[in-house]
Amino acid sequence: MKFAALTFLVLFAALGLVAASAHAQETIQATGNGGYFQTDKAKQARQDWILNCQGCHKVDGTGRPDKGLPDLTGEVSKFLAVEGGREYLSRVPGITNASVNDADLTELINWLLLRFDPDNIPADHVPYTTEEVSQWRKHPLSIDAAKTRESLLAKISNKHSQK
Ligand code: HEC
Fold it and tell me: Is pLDDT above 70 for 20?
């Protein structure tokens, strides 16, 4: 009887531990990447998103795919895994034309990857730097954006079908 009570106690303690770590996990998710979404720069990026991007992409990034406005959620970071994708994300017209300075634009791109598609960010991904974004910004994709996008999506889907 005593033994049973002891077993029960140990089990109970173990359950408590599991619950505690599940709680910690939830907290990380809620605050986002160890609190990144609570930082001033992340809040600024969100603000920039609302002012410059949500008109087409919606606040939640889901866009209007039926109107050619891509859904970024669970998708956008896939571009990082194919050649030319990193550059593409920094050269689409919506990005290059935004009325935010280079540093804020860089943060906005880094923010949107984490915000809308954290799961597809490749393990070896290095966040965008202001230097590269300001360079690519000078070479916006205009009429060729749709074509570039199609060819990258083909690469993405090839990659997935190879798995
Ligand atoms: C006038 C509508 C419009 C605005 C405003 C806009 N975008 Fe876009 N965005 C598009 C369209 C359309 C595409 C698809 C590529 C293309 O044809 O330009 C796109 C593509 C993208 C992509 C690549 C994802 C993909 O699936 O191709 C990203 C990332 C992106 N936009 C981010 C932004 C950000 C950040 C802003 C604000 C600074 C912004 N966009 C503002 C219309 C817009």
Answer: no
Instruction: Report the atom number in ligand 1 closest to the C-alpha of 55.
Output: 5
Number of domains in the chain: 2
The residue whose CA has the least distance to atom 12 of ligand 1 is 69
Q: In this predicted model, what pLDDT tens digit does every residue of 89-147 receive, in sequence order?
A: 999 999 999 999 999 999 999 999 999 999 999 999 999 999 999 999 998 887 788 89
The phi and psi torsions of 10 (rounded to 5 degrees) equal -60, -45
**C-beta 146 within 6 A of ligand 1:** yes
Q: Closest residue (by CA) to atom 24 of ligand 1?
A: 76
For residues 85 and 132, state if they share a domain: yes
pTM given for the model: 0.81
> Which residues make Cβ contacts (< 8 Å) with residue 134, sequence separation at least 6?
102, 106
Give the ligand 1 atom nearest the CA of 92: 18
CB 85 within 8 A of CB 152: yes
* Residue-number span of the structural domain to which 26 is assigned: 1-31
**CATH number, domain at 120?**
1.10.760.10
Q: Do both 136 and 90 map to the same domain?
A: yes
Same domain, 132 and 147: yes
To test ligand 1's pocket by mutation, which of 79, 92, 157 has the most ligand atoms within 8 angstroms of CB? 92
Q: Quick check: 32 and 46 in contact, CB under 8 A?
A: no
